[in-house]
Design brief:
- The complex is a heterodimer of chains A (248) and B (92).
- Chain A has nine helices and two strands, in the order αααββαααααα.
- With 248 residues, chain A is mostly helical.
- Chain A has one domain: Arp2/3 complex 21 kDa subunit ARPC3 (Orthogonal Bundle).
- Chain A has a two-stranded antiparallel ribbon with strand order 1-2.
- In chain A, helix 2 packs across helix 5, helix 4 packs antiparallel against helix 5 and helix 4 crosses helix 6.
- The longest helix of chain A is centred in the last third of the chain and has 38 residues.
- Chain A is globular.
- Chain A starts with a helix and ends in a 9-residue tail after the last helix.
- Chain B contains three helices and one strand, in the order H-E-H-H.
- Chain B has two domains: 55 residues; 32 residues.
- Chain B is mainly alpha-helical.
- The radius of gyration of chain B is 21 Å and the shape is extended.
- Classes of the chains: A mainly alpha (248), B mainly alpha (92).
- Chains A and B meet through helix 1, helix 3, strand 1, strand 2 and helix 5 of A and helix 1, strand 1, helix 2 and helix 3 of B.
Chain lengths: 248, 92
């Protein structure tokens, strides 16, 4: 039991230290957002961050058996944000991996986990940035995870099966991250002719279009890991109300 | 679903993911596959030519090779943890 905890701790620390590595990722680049907007987005993140810390505290205190699974949610986000994939548009980008953790633990928890991923990427990898951290947390860890959560709940309400719900959660979580990034950039850099809308279309054509095939890939990859969890973590998924009590 | 079914479904899904990337590479044969963030950077310069990035990264990987080293480590460690977890649960 103790050894297990040590291994877990070491893996997580090493994981966090090396997280930061992306050259062509899609977050807003260091220095590329005016100061006012940097502050605005950082402030927008604070309430979600507090909510997330509160939820994580609840998990570690009341359901310590879910800690490993929380680690899996984080680890999945690490793997997926390291996968730079080609897109049919001829550019490349990477998925976010935020969907899985959101399905398991909700958007609050993932806003904290996503922040950690983004912080270390900004520090070690020159990917994203410290000044743009607030905006990037908002797009990926907040807008992305809220979209994933909403999509999952909607699919469940419409009585779709689990795999379909998981797919759409991950798909929309991924896509909405980059739609939000596009909006943030369009707000900060409205076009001289046409203003916000023209800029938004231009940024969307870069970020969102590239992201569509990647969001499909992320959806499928999330279904794969979710399938494994339904076999090996069936009890946990029931405890978290992700699966109905009576079985698969 | 039984374990056997899950493995079969997952193999098919994995092939689908690989196919999406392969098709992308094939469809956009001539493209350079630049990162979308580099493209956005150029667009910002196009929209606001007078804009100056006001902050630089504190640390940058010294080369593309070192960067890909860090990438590979990131993916390996994340995947390693997931593998450890599944193995641990399976043994239980």
């Amino acid at each position: 039991m103790k050894t297990k905890k040590y291994i877990l701790a070491i893996l997580l620390i090493v994981n966090i230290i090396f997280t930061p590595v992306q050259g062509s990722a899609m977050h807003i680049m260091e220095g590329f957002l005016p100061l006012g907007w940097c502050i605005f987005w950082a402030l927008c993140c604070i309430p979600f961050f507090i909510w997330g810390m509160h939820s994580i505290n609840g998990i570690t205190k009341e359901n310590p058996q879910h800690k490993m699974l929380l680690g899996v949610g984080g680890a999945f986000s690490f793997v997926l944000s390291a996968l730079k994939l080609p897109s049919i548009t001829g550019s490349s980008s990477h998925p976010t991996g935020i969907g899985l953790g959101t399905i398991l633990f909700g958007p609050g928890v993932m806003s904290v986990v996503g922040s950690i991923v983004l912080l270390f990427q900004a520090l070690l990898m020159a990917h994203g940035g410290l000044t743009t951290l607030g905006a990037n947390i908002f797009s990926m860890a907040i807008a992305g995870s809220l979209a994933a959560y909403g999509a999952f709940k909607l699919c469940k309400a419409l009585k779709m099966n689990n795999s379909v719900a998981v797919f759409f959660a991950a798909f929309f979580g991924d896509l909405l991250t980059y739609v939000t990034t596009s909006m943030q950039l369009a707000l900060a850099f409205p076009s001289e002719v046409g203003g916000f809308t023209t800029s938004l279309i231009k940024f969307l054509s870069i970020f969102a279009l590239t992201q569509i095939p990647l969001a499909i890939s992320e959806g499928i990859l999330t279904v794969i890991i979710f399938n494994l969890l339904t076999v090996y973590s069936n009890n946990e998924l029931k405890e978290l109300s992700v699966l109905p009590e009576e079985g698969l | 679903m039984s374990k056997k079914q899950i493995i079969r479904t997952n193999m098919i899904l994995l092939i689908a993911v690989v196919m999406i990337s392969v098709v992308s590479l094939y469809v956009a044969k001539e493209a350079e596959f630049t990162g979308a963030d580099t493209k956005a950077e150029n667009l910002i310069i196009e929209i606001s030519p007078e804009y100056q990035p006001w902050f630089k990264s504190l640390f940058e990987p010294p080369s593309g090779e070192i960067e890909s080293l860090l990438f590979a480590l990131q993916a390996a460690l994340g995947a390693g943890f997931i593998g450890y977890y599944i193995g641990y649960k399976k043994a239980k």
